[in-house]
Amino acid sequence: MAASDKPHASGKVPAGDTSQRVGVEAIEGRGVDVEQLVQKLIDAAGAEFTTYYYYTILRMYLAGEEDYKEICEDARLEDRAHFELVTPRIYELGGSLPYDIRTFADRAGCPDAYLPGTDDGKRAGGRDEIVAEASAEAILGVLLEAERCAIRTWSEVCDLTFGKDPRTYDLAQRILNEEVEHEAWFIELLSKERDGVVRPSGHFRRGEPGDAPYSKNSGFYNP
Ligand SMILES: [Fe+2]
Ligand SMILES: [Fe+2]
């Protein structure tokens, strides 16, 4: 038997009104502070984007440590996938990325993952410069803390949206799945490298670099 009267055919947003979104109204009605959520998503997207950038440098300095390099590369490319996954959601919710990338980087919700020994990125860098402090151990320490910040970030987004905003929750929990894996990888590597202690992560290699099994968008967008 059909439900009576098509109760969802109309609502608070007038028909044809493009200045409001039922997709926003519906989650506000369930208790989401959408403006606060959008600001947190922009901060989180900034952290993914800047981490992708900094991991590029960290990976370069893992020279000669092919296993570490490959795992850093997976985490790097998956952060790019996280940026790609969350950014459309910011716009759906009526938000926008900052127009200036400097603003975006400054408001990133996690610290800059500087290469150790570069005076927080202030050293100029150059072809012949040796960054003696950028040992595998020091780099793995930076990677580990970056992943921990990401876990805290996406756990908070999950908490803010659970049971209220299924779409943001779905994206956040997919990202969180990978951040938890990334932390486990770097615990395994740092523990062995620094302390000679085996703390298995359960990791074996991704199928392809940056496979992003939980968070990847269509290959068209994120090849
Ligand atoms: Fe990430
Ligand atoms: Fe990560």
Summarize the structure.
This protein has 6 helices and no strands.
List the helices and strands and how they pair.
Elements: H1 22-28, H2 34-60, H3 66-92, H4 101-106, H5 136-161, H6 166-195
Helix pairs in contact: 2-3, 2-5, 3-6, 5-6
The gross shape turns out to be elongated
Helical residue percent? 55-70%
Count of helical regions: 6
The end-to-end span amounts to: 47 Å
Q: Give the percentage of residues in beta strands.
A: under 5%
Computed CA radius of gyration, to the nearest angstrom: 20 Å
Write up this protein:
This protein is mostly helical and 223 residues long. The chain is 55% helix and 0% strand. The protein has 6 helices and no strands. Helix 2 packs antiparallel against helix 5 (136-161), helix 3 (66-92) runs antiparallel to helix 6 and helix 5 packs antiparallel against helix 6 (166-195). It is elongated and about 70 Å long. It starts with 21 loop residues before the first helix and ends in a 28-residue tail after the last helix. It binds fe (ii) ion (2 copies). One fe (ii) ion is lined by residues 75, 78-79, 147, 150, 179, 182.
